[in-house]
Amino acid sequence: MNAATLGLHRIGYEVRSYLRAPDAVFFTFLFPVIMLALFSVAFGSSPDIQAGPGASVDYATYYLPGLVATGFLLSGTQALGVDIAGERSDGTLKRLGGTPLPVLSYFTGKIGMVLVTSIAQTALLLVVASTVFGVDLPTDGGAWARFAGLMLLGVATACVLGIAVSALPREGRRATATIVPIVLVLQFISGVYLPFTQLPDWLQTIAGVFPLRWMASGMRSVFLPDAFASAEPGGTWHLGLGALVLAAWLVVGAVACLLTFRWNRRDS
After folding, report:
1. How many structural domains are present in the chain?
2. Would residue 265 count as lying in a domain?
3. What's the 3-state SS for 61-122?
């Protein structure tokens, strides 16, 4: 079989392996749904969030965009980084390196798994938000086209960063302790749980360097009324700048993958 066919077979294998890992399913696949439920119930009796006269949304609607973006980072960067680091540590990569499996097919399987699970995760999140918490989803085709573009770019960026950060832990058992805190901090400084403009200016500047801030604001442009752009720095969504930052991270991550990925552990 050629590399493409092997890659397709790897996608099926990786998806089955992912779904058979309860910790991965709970802490990555279901995490955004659980957080949406917690915020919606906790603030269910609170007044709606205002963004000017006649523009308000409930808390479920407000938190949905950030949690959609967080799902991409969890599935791509966190889950993929921990998974590959574990495979490197337990010798799985070394054994695969001794087979005819091309690196491209291996990457295709991993990235394809993230794409499949991200689509399923996002669909589940949107269904729960709409049917359980009454979130009004966009009806404009342009908004959904923007959503699809942001999703593809966000997932691709998260995947290459996940492959790159998998080289950080020297042992697989340390992968979770190394990678999860990075992802958690990015969630708090990127406008997922706190209004972005309420953060100190210096923290907004730091967050603006990383992709989650732009994935979250891009998703807010899809799911929130246009009036909420006034709550963003500069009073606009900055979609063009966000796309450039994500594209830059995609390139940086791809280069880092080429420089750091190897079948064997660094100390082997």
Report:
1. 1
2. no
3. HHHHHHHHHHHHHHHHHHHHHHHHHHHHHCCHHHHHHCCCCCHHHHHHHHHHHHHHHHHHHH
Assigned domain for 266 exists = no
Tokens of 134: 């009454």
At 117, the amino acid letter reads T
50 found inside a domain: no
* Assigned domain for 60 exists: yes
> Which two structure tokens, joined as six digits, stand for 197?
């403009």
Query: What is the distance between the alpha carbons of residues 207 and 185, in angstroms, rounded to a whole number?
Result: 10
Per residue in 117-172, pLDDT (tens digit) is 999 999 999 999 999 999 999 999 999 999 999 999 999 999 999 999 999 988 88
239, exposed or middle or buried, with CB in 10 Å at 0-12, 13-18, 19+? Answer: middle
Q: Which domain holds residue 86?
A: 3-43+55-260
The residue type found at 208 is G
pTM check: above 0.90: yes
Q: In the numeric block, which tokens belong to residue 18? A: 């992912």
Distance CA 115, CA 101 (A): 21
Grouping H, G, I as helix, E, B as strand and the rest as coil, residue 49 is strand
